[in-house]
Each structure stands twice: as structure tokens, then as C-alpha cells.
Amino acid sequence: MHVSLDGFAAGPNREMDWIKLDADLFDFVGKMTDNADAALYGRITYDLMEGYWPHAGDEPNASKHDKQHSAWYNKVTKYVLSRSGNAIHNAKIINGDLAAVIKEIKQQNGKNIMIFGSPSASHALTAQGLIDEYWLFVNPVLLGKGIPVFKNVAERMNLKLVESKSFSIGVIGLHYAKS
User: Fold this and answer.
1) CA 96 to CA 39: how far, in whole Å?
2) Domains in the chain, ordered, with CATH?
3) CA atoms of 87 and 65, how far apart (whole Å)
4) Rounded to whole angstroms, how far apart are CA atoms 48 and 44?
5) Backbone angles phi, psi at 163, to 5 degrees
6) Contacts of 95 (CB under 8 A, 6+ apart)
């Protein structure tokens, strides 16, 4: 998840125009998606993703990243946390007992499950201790207010720094795991 230096995942109006991206960061994230065969989203983020990624790689001016991520997006199993429970095209809905459903998904054969953005979904998963690892991409900006990356953490959770990666655009990637 991208995060401002002062801890926000998005601005007060969900704006993300402050996020710095370049080919190196896209290549790095591409290696991460190679190790994942499931994606988990909140409803708002899923709607944004579904509006862009299914056909992004088919566009005449598609970048290498657009082609690769579009192909990955179209083949992975998508899960969407949604309170409404209404059916969503091309995704499985998760509502009800979040912990039980996530534990069941984790027990299935396969690769990693990735969460892209989705602050509300991340808040719910973190509150129940269901996220095993965090990748935070710290951007060199102070927003002052917005949607926090961490909210309503039920209890202290100790994390271990697994690795860090510095990008030439000023972004620092921090990989933490539960300790």
C-alpha cells in the first residue's frame, strides 16, 4: 500500500495524485504479483480496478506494466470485502465472518493473496490480525489529513522488518512481517 510520510493511504477526498510511480517501482511490484494468485480488495477499490485493468493491456498505448498487470489481474481469483453481499462480476464476495473466510482462503493451495490499496479492507483485516505481511511504499509527501493506513488496531502487533528497497523517485518500500 502506498502511504504518505505522515501515515495516510489517501487524501481526505480519497485522492491519490500524490503517489509517485515509475518503471522501476512497477517492475518491483510485478515481481510481487508473480508470487500471488489471488487479490483482495475493498468494494471501492475493486470498482476502480475493474473499471481499468481488464482491458488496460489491450490499449494501443499500453505500457509494459499495463500489459503485465492487466494479464495478472485477468487470471487471478479476486475477493471483495463487501457489506452488501451483492454479487459482483468476476469476483467472490466476502461478508459475514471475515476471519473464518480468510483462514479458509489461506488454507487453499496456491500462492500469496495480495491486497492493493483498499484502506477500509486493510483496516478490517488488520483489526482481526489477518494480514501476515505488509508492504508499505512510503512516498515523500505530507498530506496533513486523509484516510489513515492503520486505524482501529485492536491490540499491539509487533512487526519485523524483512527488507527495504529505495527507489530513485524517493519512495521507500518497507516489507514487514508479524513477529
Assistant:
1) 19
2) 2-178 (3.40.430.10)
3) 29
4) 6
5) -165, 165
6) 81, 82, 83, 84, 85
Q: What is the mean pLDDT of residues 155-164?
A: 94
Mean pLDDT over each residue of the chain, to the nearest integer: 92
Higher local confidence (pLDDT), 152 or 40? 40
Q: What is the pLDDT of residues 9-32, one digit of tens each?
A: 999 999 999 999 999 999 999 999
The three three-digit cell numbers of residue 168, written as one number: 530513485
Question: Stretch 49-77: mean pLDDT, rounded?
Answer: 94
From residue 134, alpha-carbon distances to 47, 110, 127, 130 in Å are 23, 19, 14, 11
The CB-side HSE value for 30 (13 A sphere, CA atoms) comes to: 16
pLDDT of residue 85: 64
Label the pairing between strands 2-4 and 133-139: parallel
Give backbone dihedrals phi and psi of 124, rounded to 5 degrees, phi first: -65, -45
Question: Cα 145 vs. chain centroid, distance in angstroms?
Answer: 20
Amino acid, single-letter form, for residue 11: G
Report pTM: 0.90
Ramachandran quadrant class, 144 (left: phi over 0; alpha: psi -120 to 50; beta: rest): left
